[in-house]
Amino acid sequence: MTALAFGRRSGGGLAALRSPRAWVIPGLALGVVVVVVVAGMTGAMAVPASAVLHMLFGWTGLWAGAPLDEATVTVLSVIRLPRVAMAALIGATLAVMGAVMQALFRNPLADPGLIGVSSGAAVAAAASIVLGSSLPLFGALPSGMVLPVAAFAGGLAVTALVYTFSVRDGQPSLSLMLLAGIAMNALGGAVIGLFVYLADDAQMRQLTFWTMGGLGAMTPGTLIPAAVLMALALGGVLFTARALNLLLLGEAEAYHLGVRVEALKRVCIVLVALGVGAGVAVAGTIAFVGLVAPHLVRLMAGPDHRRVLPGAACMGAILLTGSDLIARTIAVPAEMPVGLVMAGIGGPFFLVMLLRVRAAGGV
Amino acid sequence: MLTVQGVTVRRGGRALIEDHHWTVPDGAVTVVLGPNGAGKTTALKVLSGDLRPDAGQVWLNDRPLPDWPVQELACRRAVVPQAGALAFPFTVEEVVTMGRAPHRRRSWAARDAAVVADALSATDLTALAQRPYPGLSGGEKQRVHLARALAQLDGAPDGQRTLLLDEPTAALDPAHQHQCMRLARRMADDGAAVAVILHDLALALRYADRLVLLRQGRVMAEGPVADTATADILSAVYDCPVRLLRVPGEALPVVVTG
């Protein structure tokens, strides 16, 4: 709100702290901890909050509690916390990459799917479900790895294709990329339709559920590589916040202000494809979070990416962890697709936010 | 100082600008004039480094433009665009502060804030500082970008400041047109090299030291206003009768076209 909001070394710390925007990131970070702890407590075997906190923070020495019994440790460390951590990481990745795409395309409606990574992953996932390990190369993989590896490779391949189509005079043109992405998404929809046509009932069911997203089917072999990829992509993209602010002025204007625009675009596309590709590979397509989480953060913290990116990470983690908590507890012992929960709760919530903003005269 | 040396830009087999030789000297306002499609904006894009010429070279001081690191260039060359496409609700003050981005290793928050406050007041924007940019009028947006450019050139190495303006007065009312050109004039008086694209001949005659007159991609005339702003040259450039009428008591001639 003040002149200092943009300075790197925001002097006058007290004045800055009086701005409500300064509290958005700490508030959201606290929200992540609360949601993670609640998600860790909840499930077939209830666990007290103290046990979850002990598992999360005991090793730091910040939390000293009684030693836990073996069953609790097993439930938390083998079943529940890996899933909660993955939900938080995937939510954070999708949300941050959504914010990056919106900045890159200077369009608040952009989402990571625009560059074809989701539809490429979906096509490859459909192929691997319907054709199974009869696909070349994939026969050698353990059965639980075929789908995620195929989805990741498919996402990257289609993004690379979209990128190739968009290069003009040696530079990626964002408007060409947008159009090529739309064409690829349409083509991907047709190919998925073809696989649905070819699929038997069980395959069709698996395919349908994959496209609605779910964290229940993750296998240990894919968790670690996916988590590492997402963490790297997230960490890398946080360094682009200042340049993304300048990019919002326009590509030429950003260049005039010292941003190496072509390099920035390439780095962002690669990081978005890696992060989203890894997330989609293990959890299926989860729409909505990439579009809405950055918006919610902008409504609270303003458009500066030095707040939007970390804020979106927290917001995405909260949304997906919370949605997954609901998805796995609302119809026990069955599990809802997390994408349905996300859209079902997030949609109305977003509308309410819009109404409030409209009433306040913003946007 | 910017030096344009034999620059040609072709697109689709057609030369947008051809064999340009001219300079934007330090301490002067150089106004680029010409009819629509004469290549004014292309010429400015070559000056700013947005466009690589197909032949020839642009020099900034002692170095060809491509040899300047992007960041170093941004510390001494600012561009005021025709229209800003920013759709996200940054405040006016935040947009102007973006002009300080190239200096962030050499500057500090308090100094940036002071520079930004000066730029806002020089462009009559102090009262609008906390308003979101997307809600401004076209003329106000134009002034924001002018203020951003002023903030960007504060702290540039002495004798190396370059300001490029692409029709900065197009959306401005007469008072702000003069304010904008006075600011350009003041930058030049402080030693900056200033190049401005204008359509308004009266503004050009009032504020220019030098003119570059373009027609169909070629330079028709270049030099001090006294030598280039003649009725004959202007009529030929615009393909339209231009008369310069002397009025008693007025230092500048009145421009009559058509």
From TrEMBL, chain A:
Query: Subcellular localization, per the record?
Result: Cell membrane
Name any GO cellular component annotation: plasma membrane
Main localization (coarse): membrane
Which Gene Ontology terms cover its molecular function? transmembrane transporter activity
InterPro entries per record:
ABC_BtuC-like, ABC_transptr_permease_BtuC
Residue intervals passing through the bilayer: 20-39, 84-105, 117-139, 145-165, 177-199, 223-248, 269-296, 308-326, 338-357
Q: Which family does it belong to?
A: Belongs to the binding-protein-dependent transport system permease family. FecCD subfamily.
The record's annotation in PANTHER family points to:
ABC TRANSPORTER PERMEASE PROTEIN MJ0876-RELATED, FERRIC ENTEROBACTIN TRANSPORT SYSTEM PERMEASE PROTEIN
Name of this chain's protein: Iron complex transport system permease protein
Look up and give the organism this protein is from.
Novispirillum itersonii
Give the taxonomic lineage as stored in the record: Bacteria, Pseudomonadati, Pseudomonadota, Alphaproteobacteria, Rhodospirillales
Automatic annotation (TrEMBL), chain B:
Q: Name one Pfam family in it.
A: ABC_tran
Q: Which residues form the signal peptide?
A: none
Q: Which domain of life is it from?
A: Bacteria
Q: Which InterPro entries match?
A: AAA+_ATPase (IPR003593), ABC_transporter-like_ATP-bd (IPR003439), P-loop_NTPase (IPR027417)
Cite the ABC transporter domain residue spans from the record: 2-241
Which of UniProt's keywords are assigned here? ATP-binding, Nucleotide-binding, Translocase, Transport
According to the UniProt entry, its GO molecular function terms are:
ATP binding; ATP hydrolysis activity
According to its UniProt entry, the function of this protein is described as: Part of the ABC transporter complex HmuTUV involved in hemin import. Responsible for energy coupling to the transport system.
Would you tell me the protein name for this molecule? Iron complex transport system ATP-binding protein
The scientific name of the source species is Novispirillum itersonii (Aquaspirillum itersonii)
